Amino acid sequence: MKKTKEAKVKIRRMTRSDIHEVLALDRVIRGSRRDVIKFEDLTSANPGTPPNISFVAEVDGRIVGFAINRSTYLMVPLTEVCIIHAILVDPDYRGLGIGGKLIEALLKHCQTEGIGTVRALIPTGNKELQDIFKRHGFKRSRIINFDKTSES
């Protein structure tokens, strides 16, 4: 099904029963070369917390986008932060504001729950995604991320 400007988009919390459809959409979007999101990542309770505040976007009962988010405690003193791990929208439904609606639903939820910081992890080269977050009031963090991989 192709997108239409009249498509009725429903944003709701992700449930355990959505996981297989989310993974299938992830493979469609990213290609079959690899699963970036693993079933175990979406269902595990340890280590850390499950993606306990994730959302899906539906059109006509079909998942056409999702946001994988999780709350965690970071820094000293410990502060609850929501981390946005992934926001993906079916290419046939891009341009309808679905990514923005997923972000808005998350921000509203975090405000209701008293989570004061929402952090998006965005690759430095992805200007399109950076612009989407800037439009929703996100600013570059003062936190500098350092990574060490087994190859380095």
Describe the protein.
The chain is of the alpha+beta class. It is globular and about 45 Å long. Strand 3 (62-74) and strand 4 (79-89) form a beta hairpin. The chain has a five-stranded mixed beta sheet with strand order 1-2-3-4-5, with helices on both faces. It has four helices and five strands, in the order E-H-H-E-E-E-H-E-H. It has helices at residues 19-30, 39-43, 98-113, 127-135, and strands spanning 9-13, 55-59, 62-74, 79-89, 117-120.
Q: Care to give the gist of this entry?
A:
The chain is 28% helix and 25% strand.
Outline the low-pLDDT stretches.
Answer: 43-50
Please estimate the helix content.
Answer: 25-40%
Topology order in helix (H) and strand (E) letters: EHHEEEHEH
What shape does the CA trace take?
Answer: globular
Q: How much strand?
A: 25-35%
Structural class: alpha+beta
Per DSSP E runs of 2 or more residues, the count of β-strands stands at: 5
Query: Biggest sheet, in brief?
Result: 5 strands, mixed
Strand arrangement within the widest β-sheet reads 1-2-3-4-5
